[in-house]
Amino acid sequence: MKKIAILQAPFVQEMRKTTANLYRLGWDERNGGNISYLLKEEEVTPFLNVEEVIRKIPMIFDASELAGFYFIVTGSGKYFKNVTDEPSENLGIVRVAQDGKSLDLLWGLDNFATPTSELPSHFMSHIARRKVDPENRIIMHNHASHLLAMSFTHELDERKFTRTLWKMCTECLVVFPEGIGIIPWMVPGTNEIGKATSEKMKENRLVLWPQHGIYGAGRDMDEVFGLIETAEKAAQVYTYVCAQGGVKQTISDENLQRLAKMFGVEPRAGYLDVF
User: Fold this and answer.
1) How many helices (H) does the chain have, and how many strands (E)?
2) Residues 6 or more apart in contact with residue 60 via CB below 8 angstroms
3) Composition of the chain by helix, strand, coil, percent to 5
4) Three-state secondary-structure class, residue 58
5) If DSSP states are collapsed to H, E and C, what string results for 150-182?
6) β-strand 91-96 against 70-74: which pairing, if any?
7) Measured between alpha carbons, how far is 246 from 32 in angstroms, rounded to an integer?
8) Residue 156 and residue 152: Cα distance in Å, rounded?
């Protein structure tokens, strides 16, 4: 069977478009940010011979729970602005080896490039989210500007932070009713930050890395992009509100509860002051 050119694959096109959009928004400066996208074997095989392994890539994390799974990922040290024009240099399709301690490179990551240094954090979050939602396929990390700024000026209490975002834009409670998780500042690229993030991912699809950025998870690229986009818009409004002298009026908890009922979502228990 003749393989179709890999650049025509829908998942490659999605990665090219999404990375370009993230760079356009200023959320992924230089080589900031990373994406991992879980692929089904039947999605990959029309484009690649999965028996042809270009090289083995060792990992610092035991991903045996994902053994045999395929991912398209962004590369370490790669700039999102270059993905569209040079996809094979900046993206890679990998399969987790059976021992979970290495990756089979099937395409991309030219010139001995490696996957994002945050891949252990991504894999830990994939594992955590799939236990909550087996359809979860995307982990996205970026440096959304206003959420990043809020991590300097707002109290880093999950309930208070979430309530502020919910009250900035009516859609926020509907989009992320479970709220936003927050971890302490930690060194990126380590198993430790991956473990802390994945613990939060058991209950949240959004996790804030203070003074660094945001992690989002979901079933497809639109869902995750929209999730982060919605929280970032609320953080932007918060920035404007603070600059304009602070809150004079906002959405009441009673109205947030009415909103949740209307859209059939369940706000995080204890986050609304209603009786």
Assistant:
1) 10, 9
2) 120, 191
3) 40, 15, 40
4) strand
5) HHHHCCCCHHHHHHHHHHHCCHHHHHCCCCCEE
6) antiparallel
7) 31
8) 9
Residues marked as catalytic: 118
- Structural domain boundaries enclosing 26: 1-116
CB-based contact 260:267 (threshold 8 Å)? yes
> Is 186 found in the same domain as 69?
no
CA 126 to chain centroid: 10
Angle between helices 221-243 and 10-24 (to 10 degrees): 10
CA 232, 233, 235, 239 torsion-angle sign: positive
What is the token pair recorded at 7?
């650049």
Segment 201-235, tens digit of pLDDT: 999 999 999 999 999 999 999 999 999 999 999 99
Q: Give the HSE-up count for residue 237: Cα atoms under 13 Å, Cβ half-sphere.
A: 17
The domain total for the chain is 2
Name the pTM for this structure.
0.95
